[in-house]
Amino acid sequence: MGMDFTFSEDQHTFVDAVRGMLTSEVTPDRIRARWENDTGIDGALLEQIADLGVMGMLVPETLGGLGLGPTDFVMLAQAAGEVALPEPVVEQAAVVGPLLTDILERGLGGESIQSRLDDLVGGKISTAVAHPINPFVNFADQADWLLVGRGEDVCLVSRDQIELRPQASVDPSRRIAEVDVNVDDAASLATGDVGADLWRRTLNRGALNSAAQLLGLAEAMVNQSVRYTSDRSQFGRAIGVNQAVKHLLADVAVQIEYAKPVIYRAAYTVEVSPSRADFAVSHAKVAASRAALMAARHCIQVHGAMGYTWECDLQIWVKRAWALGREWGDEGFHKNRIHEWLLQPNALLGPEFTFGRRSLADTVAA
Amino acid sequence: MDLRYSDSQQAFRAEVRAWLSEHVPANSLPSFDTEEGFEAHRDWERTLAEGNWGMVTWPEAYGGRGCDLIEWLIFEEEYYRAGAPLRVNQNGIFLLGPTLMEYGTEEQKARFIPAMASGDEIWAQAWSEPNAGSDMAAIRCRATRDGDDYIINGQKIWSTRAVYADWGFGLFRTDPESERHHGLSKILVPLTAEGVTVRPIRQLNGLPGFAEIFFDDVRVPSFNVLGGEGEGWRIAMATAGFERGLMLRSPARFQQAAKRLVSLYRERAGELLDPSVEDAVLRCHMDAEAYALSTYQTASKLVAGGSIGPEASCNKIFWSELDLLIHETAMKLLGARGELEPSNAAQVAELGTWLDGFMFAQSGPIYAGTNEIQRNIIAERMLGMPRK
Q1: What share of chain B is helix, strand, coil (3-state, %, to 5)?
Q2: B102, B129, B243, B321: which one is catalytic?
Q3: What is the edge-to-edge ordering of all strands in the sheet holding A162-167?
Q4: Range of the domain at B160
Q5: Cross-strand pairs, B137
Q6: pLDDT tens for residues B228-256?
Q7: pLDDT (tens digit, 9 = 90+) per residue, A21-45?
Q8: Distance CA A281, CA A260 (A)
């Protein structure tokens, strides 16, 4: 078989089904309605998503999930970005679930961890992750349990050990909070190198899935802008006829096109080697942020004054991009990881190493 | 999705690597835009052809190896890794060759492909005219039917490699009553034919990399029409597709350049650098990787039976701007000494070919359809924005 950088029919079919459901259920009006409700969450929608098997996709079958991998999930995260899904489905399914799984598979947790996982697979947000890289936890107020760091340790703390200080995000769909935990009292599930490895995998999963959502956000912003510039007329013709307008959107299309395979390679790398995926993941986060932030800027611009209003739905996607670009490591963090890697004398650079040493047999080792 | 090479792909890589390490000239050849360099590069094409490495994707019957696009990428990776010479016949093998394979008759393939593969016939492009640049449908150069022949009159310009090449291919107006993209035919013309005058044009680097071609009652047989009279536009679009698409600039070229840039940056990292350099080096590395990944993705899709979509128009913008950034960044790293035209061995060792590459990079966003035209194509055909 050999090198094959395509998704399977099954993968496409599944994401198309989920995308279809999301597109009809997650509309700008309903997102705006969530801004006014207490939790910011549509519980019925979460159940619907869980019924499709999305929440437990990355949980092994032996632990109650579907046993699929990040390459199966990455286009779903993208689809969640396309509709600017407010619910933390991607983070629950692709970050929290896999971390709970890691803990169970290493024999570090028992029944209480399994029941956290059962909740998650069923569509109930009962656990949140407070990774040291993130100053805020999204929807922490929904969680009864928190996985939190103490140095390299991974600790599970219950609601009564947590103090939340809600903060206002630029994105009204996000319900973020600073989390204070008395970690001195918490029992460690993992310590030392094991804990550090769990945090590193978690960071890579978080950044990968932020990147995939950013990609979907960028695509959606361009699509809305194509519609707007085709409908809006000035000087007796659609404004989208003008090259100055066309080129703003074409520039975004190019960035999107070249972020895609970078994100898909990162998904593959996280799948086969989550502890050694730093380089691929950081590239994905930087490329996706670049595309999404350019989309936000250029798409506001082509909407003219409408783009600067609260009324214009574009803001839903723009503000999510502004927020997700910062979560799970901002641009500076990820560029520094790549920079560090590039300066290593033994970094694998050059045309034969596109897919790393793992892709090459010993017969052609460098 | 499986991002590992198979055993046979690995074996192929090893075979390519072994052959190249034995055959690639130890010293780099003079530029193929000099007479001496052109012949040296022709010899290299012959060497490649003797090993059946001239164009690995072609069928064995035509001197190729019947490779798929993934193997082609592997070949290219090894080719650039080995620092092998640039392909003087790239207009032929990468642009005309695939079109001949698709639209040529068996007789035409037999006539032209082996000589192209062997380096005996080197090809120039002859698309543009003084008043048909970005607007290629404005072509006026006439080919008038006369019995079994066509008689060509008119002028072409910006014809890459035409100064020393043996043959040219381009679009000619075969229907004198026609307008725009109707009535054009793709014709192959020997540049040695009576009535052909080639006037070299010096490029930014001082060398005659392209030329004007004047046709004064040039007689070519109708055998030289590719794909049928009046089919020129459709076929040219296919050629433009290959050019913008996969083959003109293989990703390995930029990955190798980005690798050299990182080395240069490592050497200079302790010095006082323009603060923008670090970010640019990172971006060059990332974008070279992204271009490779995208090409692997497209190649995988094609190997699996899919087709290239309008998103391929993004390629040209991406690689040409990447090439500029790589060379602009290298020039920043060279600082004040970047002004020097290397004129002795020590300077060549110190400054490499960055200045040369920097000058050539200026042309990337212009040739094969300017990037402004590409952005129009992306906006209209890929995004569906209104034309008028």
Answers
A1: 50, 15, 35
A2: B243
A3: A137-138, A176-181, A162-167
A4: 123-230
A5: none
A6: 999 999 988 776 565 446 777 899 999 99
A7: 999 999 999 999 999 999 999 999 9
A8: 12
pLDDT, average across residues A207-230: 98
**Angstrom distances, CA of residue B180 to CA of B150, B171, B184, B232, B240:** 20, 12, 8, 12, 17
Q: What is the mean pLDDT of residues B14-38?
A: 96
Cβ contacts (< 8 Å) between B8 and chain A: which residues?
A: 2
CA atoms within 13 A on the CB side of B136: 22
Distances (CA, A) of A135 to A40, A178, A197: 20, 6, 20
Contact A363 B10 (CB under 8 A): yes
**Residue A1: pLDDT over 80:** no
Scored b (16 or more CB within 10 A) or e, A228-246 reads bbbeeeeeeebbbbbeebb
* B243 assigned to active site: yes
Over residues B102-134, the pLDDT tens digits come to 899 999 999 999 999 999 999 999 999 999 999
CA-based torsion, B116, B120, B125, B129: positive or negative = negative
E-assigned strands of B62-183?
Answer: 123-126, 142-146, 149-160, 167-173
Chain A residues in contact with B276 (beta carbon < 8 A): none
- ipTM for the predicted complex comes to 0.95
pTM flag (> 0.90):
yes
How many domains are there within chain B?
3
What's residue A180's pLDDT? 87
Asked whether A16 and A57 are in contact (CB, 8 A), the reply is no
> Does residue B290 fall inside a structural domain?
yes
B95 DSSP 8-state letter:
I
Q: Which element (helix H / strand E) includes A176?
A: strand A176-181
Burial class of residue B31, CB neighbours in 10 A (0-12, 13-18, 19+): middle
Contact B383 A249 (CB under 8 A): yes
Q: How far apart are CA B31 and CA B28, in angstroms?
A: 9
CB B6 within 8 Å of CB A360? no
Q: Is A148 exposed, middle or buried (0-12, 13-18, 19+ CB in 10 A)?
A: buried
**What is the Cα–Cα distance from B274 to B329, expressed in whole angstroms?**
10
Q: How does residue A356 score in pLDDT terms, banded at 50, 70 and 90?
A: confident
B255 and A354 in contact by Cβ < 8 A?
Answer: yes
Claim to verify: residue B301 and residue B373 sit in the same structural domain: yes
Residue of chain A whose Cα is closest to the Cα of B377: A250
Assess whether B319 and B256 both reside in one domain: yes
Is A237 near chain B, with CB under 8 Å? yes
User: Which positions ≥6 away from B134 have C-beta within 8 Å?
Assistant: B369, B370, B372, B373
Residue tagged 């046979």 (tokens): B8
Residue B91 confidence class, pLDDT cut points 50, 70, 90: very high
- Amino acid letter, residue B95: L
In a domain, B103, yes or no: no
* Per-position b or e across B108-126, b if 16+ CB within 10 A of its CB: bbebbbbbbbbbebbbbbb
- The domains located in chain A, with CATH, are 200-364 (1.20.140.10)
Cβ proximity of B16 and B78 under 8 Å? yes
Longest dimension (CA), chain A: 70
CA distance B89 to chain A (A): 22
Of the candidates A190, A198, A207, the residue with the CA atom closest to the CA atom of residue A262:
A207
Cα separation, A269 vs A280, in Å, equals: 7
From CA A256, how far away is CA A237, in angstroms rounded? 28
| Structure token digits, residue B285 | 């590395």
* Chain A residue nearest residue B297, CA to CA: A5
In a domain, B52, yes or no: yes
Do residue B221 and residue B188 come from a single domain? yes
CB pairs below 8 Å between A and B: how many?
195
